[in-house]
């Protein structure tokens, strides 16, 4: 029998995600793939280590036949790589350099930042560690490894009520943040659509810009976290993002 275990235990040095008296604090939820990272991490790994079934599964997801959770679970199961090979690819993935400046700003302002991703926890932490940002809380799907070349996913943040059938229900995270003053969101793609109407303001890239426009949601278009840094300081002290 093959046993799969987490690649490594990830420990966070941060406040509890749920709970606490945060009525005078703001929080920023950040997507990772294509938002913090310059490229989609999961797609990059599948391009290197996936087989032909991965593309078929992607097409089934795009056609609405399967949800994103089922798609990712099956795609990762069709990935073949040793841990050292996986790490070599992850070492080449860069993040938006201005995200470091954004985190510095957030720390000075006592602004809470959480990474909420439908990607892979180990991959995200591995990349953040290179930038000395692995202290940030990451809520993502758990990557499991059998010690050989095989991989699986677990979904600690899935919800049976998730309308997108995602591995990580971002709307569920949002519902747990009622004691924060304002909730901002930074994202770029389809996994961010369902949470976009549940926050005070969206900082949107790429596909998320068009989605916010079509649904008349309050948003600011951005190209990088440097744009967030230009806009956010004027918002965190305002009474309302709509003023």
Helix/strand layout:
Layout (H helix, E strand, L loop, with lengths): L4 E2 L19 E5 L10 H9 L2 H11 L5 H10 L5 H8 L7 H11 L3 E9 H10 L7 E8 L5 E4 L15 H6 L6 E6 L13 E4 L2 H8 L4 E3 L3 H12 L7
Parallel strand pairs: 2-3, 2-6, 3-4, 6-7, 7-8
Antiparallel strand pairs: 1-4, 4-5
Helix pairs in contact: 2-3, 5-9
Task: Summarize the structure in words.
The protein is of the alpha/beta class and 243 residues long. It has helices at residues 41-49, 52-62, 68-77, 83-90, 98-108, 121-130, 170-175, 207-214, 225-236, and strands at residues 5-6, 26-30, 112-120, 138-145, 151-154, 182-187, 201-204, 219-221. Strands 1, 2, 3, 4, 5, 6, 7 and 8 form an eight-stranded mixed β-sheet that branches. A hairpin with a 5-residue loop joins strand 4 (138-145) and strand 5 (151-154). The longest helix is centred in the last third of the chain and has 12 residues, at 225-236. It is globular and about 55 Å long. Residues 9-21 and 239-243 have low confidence and may be disordered.
Tell me briefly what this model is:
The protein is an alpha/beta fold and about 240 residues long. It has 9 helices and 8 strands. About 35% of the residues lie in helices and about 15% in strands.
